[in-house]
Amino acid sequence: MLPAMAQSARRLATYDDLLALPDHVVGELIHGSLDVQPRPSLPHARAASRMGDVLGGPFDRGFGGPGGWIVLDEPELHLGPHVLVPDLAGWRRERLPEVPETAATDVAPNWVAEILSPSTAAKDRVDKMRLYFEFDVSHVWLVDPTARTLEILRREPSGFVLVGSHRDDAVVRAEPFDAIELQLAWLWER
Q: Which domain holds residue 85?
């Protein structure tokens, strides 16, 4: 731990610090700290891509489902002073009627999915969850492609509550997208 004077003298990271990062990394600003991670592993990217494919048709485009959502891969979210990049995010069209013509949005999503990896799991489970709660994200999915698990969390007044935990090849209806069945095996296929 830094002495109090050193902590107060620490320079807070800025958006310019994010812009200066090379293309092969993902950067986020959380409480003034710059967090930099390498691009995700291919199993991580595969799980995220598959999830976007499965949810995009029925919810974003309304093919075989209710529509009414915008679902995006790795959007840049500007939530107050924080810049977060969830693996996937979804907005009900009442909250975000159309995709903005900008590189980022300050409209908090209704749902996010974080694909966990050993290097990001603690940040995703603690730091980002606190910010998602603060900025009124109603659902968070935590997906672990190594453990082959899906955890579904719903925002309640006291915090996020685990409403479902599934593994391996389960077929689930996961809120807020419970209008369709999600076959977890699709997320783990190589």
A: 40-188
What is the structure's pLDDT at 9? 58
Q: List the structure tokens of 73.
A: 């891969």
Give domain status of residue 9, yes or no.
no
Query: What is the longest distance spanned by two Cα atoms in the chain?
Result: 59
DSSP letter string, 127-154: IIHHHHHHTT--EEEEEETTTTEEEEEE
What is the mean predicted confidence (pLDDT) over 145-157?
97
Q: Is residue 101 part of a domain?
A: yes
What's the CATH number where 47 sits? 3.90.1570.10
Q: Which of 136, 130, 127, 65 is nearest to 106 (CA)?
A: 136
pTM of this structure: 0.91
